[in-house]
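Worked example 2:
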Amino acid sequence: MVRLLVLSALVTAAAAFSSFTPRNLPTHRTCTSSQTTLSMKLFDWKRRTADESALHTVEFTLDNIRPAPGSRQRKSRKGRGIAAGQGATCGFGMRGQKSRAGRPTRPGFEGGQQPLYRRLPKFAGQPPGPGHQKEIFNLIKLDELNSCAEGSVVNFDSLFEAGAISKAKYNIHKIVVGREDFTAKGVTVQAHAFTQAARDAIEGAGGKCQLLSKTTGAVLEA
């Protein structure tokens, strides 16, 4: 008799508990029976959704110019905690030579193997180092020749002796147009190079341009 009472109590409790399970709820039955309407929007860059219809019709001025959407990003804060994304080791790791303070290796270092700049052959005919990319002339302006007499031969040495110019850093000289007008008449100018405007001005005033050799200083053309 006692066993029957205990058994009936357990059955009643199980039926009562099953009435509160989610599968017996009416809302759960409707959700499982019909398809869900949940939708998730994927992350999209600002550049893709930006309105660029007036990009070629609006004139850009200082009051309406602005950077392209998504081109400017926030500055990355390193060493300011894990919330910043680059805290503690700042993205350099915990061990190794590249995690130490100061520059660990020099530019071009490849860990001890033969670096690229030593594996490649030298460019024949061109000496390495600075100063071999272009010719650097000492510039002589045309207005510094205005004090020369008509029919005289003018070069750097004669101008230096006359006090018209100061000493030069380079040994090759080039005639260029100055700020003032060229007034000398019928002078023969000797230099290692001439600009086209300076040559036209000298020849237009009845003078001649003589090109000098850059190595020997001899006259190449009269």
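The helical segments are 2-18, 26-33, 46-49, 116-119, 156-162, 196-204. The two ends are 141 Å apart (CA to CA).
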